Amino acid sequence: MARKETAADAANPGRLKQIALTYKMTRRADKKIGLVLAAVGIVTFGVFLAIGFLIGHPIYLGLLGFLLAFLATAIVFGRRAERAAFGQMEGQPGAAAAVLDNIGRGWTTTPAVAMNRNQDVVHRAVGKAGIVLIAEGNPNRVKSLLAAEKKRMNRIVADVPVHDLVVGTGEGQVELKKLRTTMLKLPRVLTGPQVTATNDRLRALGDLMSNMPLPKGPMPKGMKLPKGGGQRGR
Question: CA-to-CA distance for 184 and 198, rounded, in angstroms?
């Protein structure tokens, strides 16, 4: 029992430190985060307290309002923190890979299945929607890189639908913050066994970056591929 309490006490400071760090990072991009959170909490609590006085149960409604105010504040904080994180990642090489890494169950993602020396890159995700190729980089250069990889997929797994998305803020592109939602909205056309079979076939082929150590998340600016490395879509 004592061990469990000790573990819980040790975990709480860690959670509080993580929340504080997240708040500081969010405030760098969202200067009004403190005022917004305070307003949400005060308004939510005030509304319930006022209703409590009107119906003659201020204590009951006050406690309920306090709990709901805390919940509302946490939800708003989470959303604004996520928005701020996407804003900081926007435009960085490899940012889409970080999003794909947290897309959720049912998807198998492979970062950098195709890349050129300009850091234009194509990632791959396989799920019940089929194969989704996600490209990021220069809009003009990335088209040929994406087209070559899509042609390769159609040749190898012709019976599986292949979708292609380009991450960016231009016309016809998908914003980084909307990438996960866009992929989850794709129609599901494959069964579980078909997804597994598709992954097995693709895994057997090997990928461009399979033997190259890549950092998780956005790639450091200025990173170059080693000379002599195979490249597709140059």
Answer: 18
Written as one string, the DSSP assignment of 33-76 is HHHHHHHHHHHHHHHHHHHHHHHT-HHHHHHHHHHHHHHHHHHH
Residues 145, 141: Cα–Cα separation, whole Å: 7
Which of 44, 201, 23, 214 is closest to 119 using CA atoms? 214
Q: What is the pLDDT of residues 42-98, one digit of tens each?
A: 999 999 999 999 998 889 999 999 999 999 999 988 878 777 666 666 656 667 777
CA gap 121, 6 in Å, rounded: 46
Q: What angle do CA 47, 53, 55 make, to 5 degrees?
A: 100
In this prediction the pTM is 0.60
Please tell me the distance from the alpha carbon of residue 174 to that of residue 182, in angstroms, as a whole number.
8
Q: What is the DSSP letter of 174?
A: B
Q: Are 87 and 27 in contact (CB under 8 A)?
A: no
Going from the C-alpha of 18 to that of each of 4, 15, 22, 168, 206, the distances in angstroms are: 21, 5, 6, 30, 38
Quickly tell me which residue has 């909490």 as its tokens: 41
**Sequence letter at residue 226:** P
